[in-house]
User: Which sequence fits this backbone?
């Protein structure tokens, strides 16, 4: 078996060459349009999760965007940052690149790239890192919490609402 070294230039070529061919039934049928709504589902699997940022992203015009959506990460999403030169120079940049790939929108901003994530407040980036971990490892946005007064346990949804709301 021959080993192949992957570089930034040929990763896309390798990924395209190893992509499975569509089934004959799927190749003939046009792709179904994406269902409108807050959370897309494919085959009963929730693939997109809405969130509300604690502070909000401020764009160049000064507009604050708080509501957004993040999709589930794929293996490709997790591999791409590993070959990014910015990540090789500074491993802390990995989360910026990864988040920019899986965030589908923030407010009216649909072109979410690394520059957008770079300009976010640190509290929002930390929130998104935790949100990413929850939806990709646990499959939901709920967290079990305990009331400090009565010690009763309950769940809160981390994806939205203002501070103090569940």
Assistant:
């Amino acid at each position: 078996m021959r080993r192949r070294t992957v570089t930034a230039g040929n990763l896309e070529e390798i990924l395209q060459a190893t992509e499975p061919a569509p089934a004959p039934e799927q190749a003939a049928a046009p792709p179904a349009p994406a269902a409108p709504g807050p959370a897309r589902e494919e085959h009963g699997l929730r693939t997109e999760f809405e969130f509300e940022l604690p502070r909000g992203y401020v764009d160049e015009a000064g507009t604050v965007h708080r509501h957004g959506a993040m999709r589930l990460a794929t293996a490709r999403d997790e591999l791409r940052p590993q070959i990014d030169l910015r990540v090789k120079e500074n491993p802390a940049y990995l989360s910026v690149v990864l988040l920019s790939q899986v965030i589908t929108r923030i407010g009216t901003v649909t072109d979410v790239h690394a520059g957008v994530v770079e300009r976010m407040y640190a509290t929002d980036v930390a929130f998104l890192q935790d949100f990413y971990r929850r939806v990709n490892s646990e499959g939901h946005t709920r967290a079990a919490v305990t009331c400090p007064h009565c010690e009763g346990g309950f769940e809160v949804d981390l994806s939205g609402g203002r501070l103090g709301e569940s």
Residues 2 and 14 are 15 Å apart (CA to CA).
